[in-house]
Amino acid sequence: MMDTRILTVDQTAQAGEILRRGGLVAIPTETVYGLAASVFDERAVANIYTAKGRPSDNPLIVHLSDGKEMEKCCLDIPEEAWLLAKTFWPGPLSMVLTKRPEIPAIVSGGLDSVAVRVPAHPVARAVIAAAGVPLAAPSANLSGSPSPTKAEHVIHDLSGRIDAVIDGGPCQVGVESTVIDMRTKPFRLLRPGGVSKERLEAVLGEIEVDSAVSGSLTKEQAPASPGMKYRHYAPNAPVLAVCGPGEASARYISREIRENDGVICYSGQEMIFSKAKAVIGYGEETDDAALARNIFDVLRQMDLLSPERIFIQCPNDRALGFAVANRIKKAAGFHVISAPTEEIL
Ligand code: TXA
Ligand code: MG
Asked: How much is the pTM?
């Protein structure tokens, strides 16, 4: 156990120093908090896996100070990658490209590719600048638990395991970056996230969605993104993802719940579930930005109330709702229910 320092957003220089010495610092980004280490320090990167309890074959995302730095980490960068960089960076998009040999294998879990992104959060950018090197940074949670969108989530999971956390308040986007593989054609969406599929397609034309996004993989299938094969974001209680229009999912859940259950619902619908043990709203049905911002926080809040089961109203796959629905379905182990849209008599 070590003493985990809590730094303010004005202490990015101290964070840079800790990183240059081979330490681990959790930093706010616009998506979720990341657990950073210098990308060239193999021991520090190994410590990330240990601190998180992360399987060593699940690769990390490398955070750059600007798009040009792609050349320091990647080879064979296609024209379209530069186009996406120009359009969406800084911002919540990670691109998988061919890895340069200078980037240690441990960073990308032994793969010959590497995921890179330029974060938009001013504190993340200041820390990268202060460290003077690109930073490898997965989400700063214990492996398998919901991603951290507040410094207190990081402290809950990793206090005593990392050198410091910078408290930058709640994250703006709330779900992680979109991950797209730029080495195959059509380009392939490996994880829906902060940049919607629609916005990517407006630039690239049609892209493919990896099969791991929509359902659990069978044992024989090797996922393109190793992170896809692990149970994720999961509270202790079993989660039931209930899809369909809000009215339909509300009707289904209100019929199914028992008094020890918890419900994560669209804001404004809480009264419908008054017989449940705990009810938490996470944003209006039409406000996918709010749903994204709050989903991980409400999963953690609900976990603390120890319900027997957790029902969640799950948005459709449009825009940011795609990322939110994906995280909910992963938390549910892809135990997904389609609420009937008509009354069955
Ligand atoms: O928004 C984000 O992306 C946050 C912040 C901190 O930047 N980071 C984050 O990292 O979510 P992490 O490690 O929790 O998720 C990275 C995902 C995993 O699913 C991983 O398998 C995938 O990206 N990934 C990373 N490198 C890859 C590669 N070379 N090929 C395929 N998938 C890769
Ligand atoms: Mg993660």
From this structure: 0.96
Neighbours of 308 (CB within 10 A): 14
Residue 228 maps to a domain: no
How close is the Cα of 131 to the center of ligand 2, in Å?
22
Q: In terms of residue numbers, what domain contains 278?
A: 239-338
Best residue among 107, 143, 210, 225 to mutate for probing ligand 1, ranked by most atoms within 8 Å of CB: 225
Q: How many domains does the chain have?
A: 2
Question: Residue 278 falls within a domain, yes or no?
Answer: yes
Tokens of residue 108, six digits: 């990308």
Residues 106 and 200 placed together within one structural domain of the fold: yes
Pocket of ligand 1 (CB under 6 A): 29, 31-32, 34, 58-61, 92, 94, 96, 108, 111, 113-115, 137-139, 176-177, 179, 190-191, 224-227
Indicate whether 26 belongs to any domain. yes
| Residue 31 predicted with pLDDT over 80 | yes
Q: Which residues of 269-303 are buried (b: 16+ CB within 10 A; e: fewer)?
A: beebbeebbbbbbbbebebbbbbbbbbbbbbbbbb
- Return d(Cα 112, Cα 131) in angstroms, integer: 25
Say how many Å lie between the CA of residue 115 and the centre of ligand 1.
Answer: 7
CA distance 179 to 172: 18
Ligand nearest to the backbone CA of 127: 1
Burial of 3 (0-12, 13-18, 19+ CB in 10 A): exposed
What confidence tens digit (pLDDT) does each residue in 175-232 have?
999 999 999 999 999 999 999 999 999 999 999 999 999 875 555 566 677 666 666 7
Answer yes or no: are the C-beta atoms of 51 and 34 closer than 8 Å. Answer: no
Termini Cα distance of the chain: 60
Q: Which ligand is nearest to the CA of 144?
A: 2
CA atoms of 285 and 314, how far apart (whole Å): 9
Within a domain: residue 226? no
